[in-house]
Prior knowledge:
The protein is α/β, with parallel strands linked by helices.
Amino acid sequence: MASPVHLLSLTQSRRKGIPALLERLLEAAGLPGHIAEGDITALKLHVGEPGNTAYIRPPFVETVAAMVKRLGGRPFLTDTTTLYTGLRRNGLDLIRAAELHGFSSISIGAPFIPADGLKGDEAVTVPSPVEGNPPVHLAAALAKADALVCMSHFKGHEVTGIGGALKNLGMGCSTKAGKLYMHAQSKPFVEPSRCTGCGRCLEWCAWGAIELEEGKAVIAESACTGCAHCLLACPENALRFHWDRAPADVQRRMAEYAAAGVPSICLPYPYHKDRHQYRNAGKLVEVGAAVIVDDVADAQDRADRLWEKLEGLMADNERRARMAQACRRAARPHAARDIAQRLLEMADA
Length: 349
Ligand code: SF4
Ligand code: SF4
């Protein structure tokens, strides 16, 4: 199901300023319906690596924090530690990076808390939505928050293609163990003909997985976490990646983390002669994992119907938990593969 996308016109910002427009955007996106009185609300950021400028500017975060407060919520800013070496590798470094970029109680009016704790291992573990896969390790402070607002900057990414909301949720809300799992298949290798033996990648590898042997870098597979940080270090482009298989695997695992059993509201396309989207959504409704809202032509009528369902669901934690469970029970993660397998068997018969 496609999600609604709300855009902000920057031409209007000359008159009103971006924070004022941002409030309108948050209202249109339904933030008021998601924050109840006293809700401890996580504002999930990517605080940015010190020295970089790729992160959301603090005044915009301050606008969201102020709105959450006006709605009765208690906001805190949060992010998780990284797998790779750098300046966000543990909770203390992460707080320092957040403060350097202006994310603190003083500037935003909400404290910064590392979601996965001091060492990146404070987790709430939930079952994976994919049958047979290990449990999902969610960063504890994010998992325990009453409400979550995900604030992501948009960027190109060497593994996922785009770094945005899904990556900020899927990768950014996991502990180190979760990140490790997502990267498990994406280990780099050295192309010896390009390696000059400069040793730079050894300094970048926090896990001591790279050594020089006869003037060439060698990666110890068993010590390598697949964090991919060394790829950025090599001036010769000698550290390579299995682009043909690794990114797809990381993306699949990231989606698994982002979708660890989520109740849904479906708006099936109403004008198809077979109404096949209704039939598909109906299956989820049957098992108690979803509700349907009619995608009626009148936008206000549609918004009202959606709002009615949303309000009811957001106020009923137990019902959402039951729907999430039903969703996990109904999931057939390998359905496409199984169907293909059956078709191949039929073709052979
Ligand atoms: S060798 Fe492995 S653990 Fe070390 S930086 Fe490269 S990907 Fe990360
Ligand atoms: S940084 Fe590149 S060139 Fe230098 S040792 Fe590592 S792989 Fe070889």
